[in-house]
Structure formats: structure tokens, C-alpha cells
Amino acid sequence: MRKSNSLADYASKRFRLAGKAYLDSGDPFFAPSDVLRAEAVRNGRRFVSFANYDYLGLAAHPKVKAAAVAALQKLGIGALASRLVGGERSLHHRLEIGLAKFLGVEAALALVSGYLTNVTTISHILGSHDALFIDELSHNSIVSGAKGTAAETIVFQHNDLDHLDFLLREKRANYRNALIVAEGLYSMDGDIADLPRLIELKEKRRAWLLIDEAHSIGVLGENGRGLWEHTGVDPQEVDLIIGTLSKTLGSCGGFVAGKEEVIRWLRYTLPGFVYSVGLSPVIAAAAETALHLMQEESWRMERLRRNAALFMDLAHDAGLDTGPAIGRGVVPVLFCDSYETLAASSYLMDNGYYVPPIIQIGVPKDQPRLRFFISALHSEEEIRGVTELLAARDIERAVPAARSLSAAT
Ligand SMILES: Cc1ncc(COP(=O)(O)O)c(C=O)c1O
Q1: How far is the CA of 362 from the centre of ligand 1 (A)?
Q2: Which ranges of 318-379 would DSSP assign to H, the alpha helix?
Q3: pLDDT digits (tens, 9 = 90+) for 10-46
Q4: What sign has the CA pseudo-torsion 257, 262, 265, 271?
């Protein structure tokens, strides 16, 4: 009898290979946080999320909401066309001018998604005679951009710039152009790239440099301008800065920024911009207001720095492994195996702290973790509370139970 070849069978096999068994003892993903929060409030319980990258607490700021409502009333929800042909609003232009000014570069272009911005920019810029150098722990959007490019992709070990230098020395001469891509603050490990050295390398080896500042805007640097400010580098030295509106800026969408000639070229040719609808005016207004507020209310950055430092100190006092994190907005707590991570996440959830496990997807399989997004809005009590719970022995008792339940199903 011929074996079934249905898409459903194929999907079920692929899902099994992707680690479906981890869900058998309870699915910790897709938790409806609005419902859980409302339930907790009703029952006089705590619900504290460390799962959201609202680093400065601007997402629900009354002025951000008011700007979104005003744009909604005036302009409606959608841009209703690609901006190139009918979707342009004055708000788009204002947001881009504000972003470029904030970043210290000449121009910026906003797209409907941060993920899309990486995919389309990285796959668009290079041709078949070129090379793309990416970090082995690059975000999936960078990896997808690499899959879409005609250029050769060359991977260097995570944050190992000696390795990058070696690869450039060995291979650069074989290609016409070269682009190096690195991230400002790595989203799973909370560590940073050595930007001054990257600039030195790109100059020495005649390459271009793209930095994805998705998690570093509002987080790194005295004024939250990102890795270049944190490391004291001139932003003009970075060829392209990519960022997202979904994290510190509390909404949704992405942007690419750099020299005027480069952005002008992209404005007319970047497929993810030209062939996709313009950013919703509601989102553009919210992001623009958040960008102003983060500069006006600079205490938020100071609070974030203090909170993250407190979290790091307490985690280390408790003997927790925070990997290579530098102690800013993203801090992982590493566990020995996925079941221990699942048990820790569920234990925290039972005690009112929402910290989903990161296993299998987005991190090496042998490095499961709880990833904490720290926010300026977390209180000292919440940070102390969650680290104390993690240090508690009860997690270790819960692990064998989670493991045997999964083995039995
Ligand atoms: C480093 C990095 N780049 C890009 C993105 C994509 O941004 P967005 O979620 O806004 O699409 C993310 C998302 O988390 C990210 O971590």
C-alpha cells in the first residue's frame, strides 16, 4: 500500500521533528496574557510579564495612545497602497526624519515589519559576485535575508571578530562587494558586538557594515541611540542601521537608515517597501510619539539601566547562569535541559511571573533558557520576587515530574 503523502501527514512529521513532544506536558506558548492579567487582577493575584520588549514602558503611554487615536480619526487605519503609488502620508515622512535625526544619520525609510526590513534589505543589496558575512547567532530575519540573496553567505562564529577577520582575509578578494551584518544587542543572549573593531575590519577589508539595532534603541547608549552611542563610534561609519518600531517604540514596523543616496535608492527599489503597503498611519503616529517621549522622559532609560543591573546582581547572587549578557534590556537565564526550562517557566507562571521558555526555536538546542526582557516599568519588588523564585529549590523538584509526565505520554 502506498504511504500517504498528504500535507497534513507531512506537517505532523515535521512538527514532531521540531520538538512537539515538549508540549505534551502542557503548552507554555501562546499564553493569552490579556486574559491571564485580567483573571489575576480579579482574583487579587499578581501577573508580571518579563516576556515583552517594551523596554521603556512606552507602549501604553497615554500620549502614544492619544496620537494613535488622533491619526485613526483623521486618516483611518490603512495606508491603502504602497507609499510609492498612493500610500504616502506626511506622517511617514515626519517619522523618518525623526528617526534619522535621532540616529545621527542622513535618512531613514520605514517599512511595515522589522522582520521584513532585514529580509528585504539583506537580500536586495548584494548581487551574485558579492559576499555576505553574518554572525552564526544572527536573528532569523537576517538568516532569511541571507537565504534570499544571490551573494555567497559566509558565517563567522558568534562575536568572534578574529574569525571574521580570518574569513575576510581568506575570502574577500574573491568577491566584488562584501557586507558584514551584526546586531546591536543580541536578542537571545543580551550580549553586544565590538563595534569599533567591526569598523576597523570593514575599512581594512573594504566591506560595508549593517547593524541591526532592533533591541538596542532605547537600551544602549546614554540617550538610547544604540550600539554606536554605547561604544562611542560615529554613526556615519555604519553603512546601514536597521531597527524596529516594535520594541522600545512600542508599536510595529521596521526601518532602515543611512546615507541619503543609499536610502533614496532603496525608497524606489527595495522590494519589501515598493511592493508592500505603507506603514499604517496609526502605527506611524504612535511610533513618532514614542520616539519623542523616549527623549523627553530620559528617566525611563535610567530606570531600565538600574533595573537590568539589579536583575543581573540578584541573578548572580542566586547562582543563576546569565551567559554572556552584558546586563541591559535582555538577560537570559540558562538551564541544563529543555525540561528544566519548561518546569522553571511553569513554576514562575504559577507564582504570577510570565517568562516563556525558549527551547528548540531561536537558540542552539543545547542552550535552553528563560529569556527576560527587563523594562523601566518593572518594580524592584518584581525583580527581587522573580529572581528569588528562580533561586528556590522547588524548581529542581518540579523537573523530574515534568520529565516523567512527558515520557509517559
Ligand atoms: C534582532 C532582531 N531583528 C529584527 C527583528 C524583527 O523585528 P519585528 O519583530 O519588529 O518584526 C527582531 C525581532 O524580535 C530581532 O530580535
Answers
A1: 12
A2: 338-350
A3: 999 999 998 888 888 788 889 899 999 999 999 999 9
A4: negative
6 Cα: distance to centroid of ligand 1 (angstroms): 33
What is the amino acid identity at position 7? L
Q: Separation of 214 CA from ligand 1 center, angstroms?
A: 6
Q: Whose CA is nearest to atom 8 of ligand 1?
A: 114
Which stretches of 294-392 are assigned E, i.e. beta strand? 330-334, 353-354, 357-358, 369-373
Q: What b-and-e string marks burial along 292-317, b requiring 16 or more CB atoms within 10 Å of the CB?
A: ebbeebeebbebbbebbebbbebbee
147 among known catalytic residues? no
Pocket test for ligand 1, best of 122, 139, 216, 241 (most atoms within 8 A of CB): 139
Are the C-beta atoms of 28 and 345 separated by less than 8 Å? Answer: yes
Q: Does residue 160 sit in helix, strand or coil?
A: coil
List, for residues 55-97, the tens digit of each pLDDT value.
999 999 999 999 999 999 999 999 999 999 999 999 999 999 9
Are 327 and 7 within 8 A, CB to CB? Answer: no
pTM: 0.94
State the CB neighbour count (10 A cutoff) for residue 357: 23
Residues with CB under 6 A from ligand 1: 113-115, 118, 139, 141, 183, 187, 212, 214-215, 244, 246, 254
Q: State in Å: Cα 264 to ligand 1 middle.
A: 23
Is 49 among the residues known to form the active site? Answer: no
